[in-house]
Amino acid sequence: xxxxxxxxxxxQVTSFGSLAGGRSDDDGFDPTPExxxxxxxxxxxxxxxxxxxxxxxxxxxxxxxxxxxxATLACHAGQFLNEIGKFxxxxxxxxxxxxxxxxxxTPTLEEQQLLCKVEENIGNLYLFQLKTQEAEDxxxxxxxxxxxxQEEDAEHMAKMVETKGRLLDQLGNMKTYASRFxxxxxxxxxxxxxxxxxxxxxxxxxxxxxxxVLKMKRHQFPLAEECLRxxxxxxxxxxxxxx
Length: 243
Known about the structure:
Layout: H1 2-14, H2 33-63, H3 67-83, H4 87-102, H5 109-128, H6 132-147, H7 154-177, H8 181-197, H9 201-217, H10 221-239
Helix pairs in contact: 3-4, 3-5, 4-5, 5-6, 6-7, 7-8, 7-9, 8-9, 9-10
């Protein structure tokens, strides 16, 4: 069986004619074993050269990566490393992404949006480590970045409004646990307005939940229950009752 498989492979290779001066069966001559071997060797060499050229082209593509592409890769890598608890490596990657984007003199809309995402992820990184002051600083930086974006496209606007609502929600919840209730209430109400404007049901549910927690911390239990029930209803609208 092995010999027949080898024979079939040899026949397939030589059916395309001689790549190294040998003859094919179509010429009316049977190629000698030496000519068959030359054909096979030539085919392998040709494929090897093609593969080498492909690798060279890939290397050129890597060399020509833009700052935006490098920053995007670093952002995703940092986000993943943060989620699995590799905080030091995550911090290095996210700051690399941030440095890449801050070096742009005339940032595009995509670069500004990515910068906001990177700054939010750095805030999340510090919050996961309970470094609340550093987290707050980076959330405010992300808000500053998104406020500076000038965009009129409706789809992009909705995404930016939702992002702003998410940042305000995070900051408001942090103020709740810092017992700065007046600031928390103001931030969470603003976050709610943004989520409603962006038609973000998951985002709205999150804000409603955090408002309920705020009311509970203030010992306003009937209002807290009302907000938490409202959050539950909103979540069920999006995720279903069995989620």
